[in-house]
Design brief:
By secondary structure, the protein is α/β, with parallel strands linked by helices. It folds into two domains: 84 residues, Winged helix-like DNA-binding domain superfamily/Winged helix DNA-binding domain (Arc Repressor Mutant, subunit A); 173 residues, 3-Layer(aba) Sandwich (D-Maltodextrin-Binding Protein, domain 2). The chain contains ten helices and 13 strands. The strands form two sheets. Strands 3, 4, 5, 6, 7, 8, 9, 10, 11, 12 and 13 form an eleven-stranded mixed β-sheet that branches.
Length: 305
């Protein structure tokens, strides 16, 4: 006859109290009910689990061996149940996130740190890449969510408008433009521009062309390296680099940051979160809820979700 988990728990409680009356009170059942269920359990096993005397109830040698095994089964079952519940609520598991900007400062860094604080059992895997590459990874379900600067016309599924970041110019410390509080786009026309083939590098080059037109611009110096490598090149006067303010959280030798302005003030790029509506990863929903919590005004904007 199969054993019930409830029977194991009741037998364990009886052994802990050494009194059927006290054990029954703990379980909120009648003493007669507990006594009857223990005898049924003994009948199923074909062994006597408890010695019943006027002084109380004590496990037999066989009973103690059974109770030790029963405790392990109950502990493993409860742990497995907790893991399954946490997984279904998105409180554990794995989440793959595509990123498009630096994590040295800014909203993305703060959001990921808050998510890690709230859900420490979620294994977060970060993927860096170009906007189009991240969108392709989303479409193929290689990643769960992507944080990308500027709207991507290739994506027709779910997205959420989040925050905006100011565009900054990373300049060699001895560059004449470091003497100004801000830099205007026209002042960058003849500057050698370092462009990363990763992250928002292509967006910056398009932005430069849109602000000043394509004529008289220095050919971009393209490199397939991450941001910190290019910032090191800026420090040795290899060229200048356009970046977002989230890149200013770390210090780089010989590099000075200045905001880039046009006639209307600081130039900003907006960030969105992109994901698939049919994504069934439970760990994604808590992250999306966190984003709506942190950026409620923008997330309520019509057409952003």
């Amino acid at each position: 006859m199969p054993l019930e988990l409830r029977e194991l728990r009741w037998a364990i409680t009886a052994s802990q109290h050494r009194s059927l009356r006290q054990a029954a009170e703990t379980l909120s059942i009648k003493q007669s009910t507990l006594s009857r269920r223990l005898r049924i359990l003994e009948y199923k096993l074909g062994v006597t689990l408890f010695k019943r005397t006027n002084g109380g109830t004590r496990p037999t040698i066989e009973g103690q061996e059974f109770l030790d095994a029963a405790q392990r089964i109950v502990d493993q079952t409860e742990a497995m149940t907790a893991r399954v519940k946490n997984r279904s609520r998105g409180e554990s598991g794995r989440l793959t996130i595509g990123i498009h900007t630096s994590l040295s400062a800014g909203n993305l860094r703060a959001t990921l740190l808050e998510h890690r604080h709230r859900f420490p059992d979620v294994e977060t895997h970060l993927v860096d890449g170009l906007s189009d590459h991240l969108i392709s990874d989303l479409a193929s379900s290689a990643i769960d969510v992507a944080f990308v600067a500027e709207p991507n016309p290739r994506w027709s599924d779910k997205s959420l408008l989040l925050w905006s970041e100011r565009v900054v110019a990373a300049l060699p410390a001895n560059h004449p433009l470091t003497g100004r509080d801000v830099v205007h786009w026209g002042e960058l026309r003849r500057e050698p521009l370092l462009v990363s083939q990763r992250g928002p590098g292509p967006e910056f080059h398009k932005l430069l062309i849109s602000k000043m037109g394509g004529s008289d611009l220095c050919p971009p110096l393209r490199h397939d390296v991450v941001l910190d490598r290019l910032l090191s090149l800026v420090g040795v006067s290899w060229g200048i680099l356009l970046a977002l303010e989230s890149a200013t959280g770390a210090a780089y030798p010989g590099v000075t940051f200045r905001e880039v302005h046009d006639a209307e003030g600081p130039t900003r790029l907006s960030f969105r979160a992109y994901w698939r509506e049919d994504n069934c990863n439970p760990s994604l929903r808590p992250l999306l809820d966190l984003l709506r919590e942190r950026y409620p005004d923008l997330s309520a904007t019509p057409g952003t979700d």
